[in-house]
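pinging the channel bc i need a second pair of eyes. not urgent but kinda urgent?? the chain im working w is below, pasted from the shared doc
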Amino acid sequence: MSEHRPRAYGILAEFESPERLLAAVEQTRAEGYRQINAYTPFPVEGLPEALGFRRTSVPLITLIGGVLGALGGFFMQYWMAVISFPENFGGRPLNSWPAFIPVTFEMTVLSASIFAVVGMLALNKLPMPHHPLFNAPRFALASRDRFFLCIGAQDPKFDRERTAQFLWTLGAHDVTEVEDA
């Protein structure tokens, strides 16, 4: 009978300091692994660059939201004042754009902030009430005083035994195989 092994999410290595984690990430990238992520209790300078993170799309999403909000706010007022309910008060023009500026500005800020929050949540794949790493026995320490590096099983270079052995050679305090839930 063959042994059935559960599908792996990846291999998780625990480090005791941010310097060791940063060195491990750099060596892991140099070794050719690309599906890697790090988990730390506080921001570590240089870690995003070492992981190979690219620029985010959130500023562009926010700009698009702001432009749509400005256009929507302006044309909503234009439609109400000129098309839907035209009233001439004191001989003023129906399309009095200076009067539309406060609402247009507020709609710009409101929609840009909504687009920014929703875009950030979508790009981070949130909310995620459960993640396979939550089953790792020592992963709760990631929010206290430990630093973790995870090599994902989707990585083309991933092999359970060789990847675990490689992480041990980086000076990991503990190496754990994480099952996909």
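so The chain has a mean pLDDT of 93. and The first helix runs from residue 18 to 31. — does that match what u expected or am i reading it wrong
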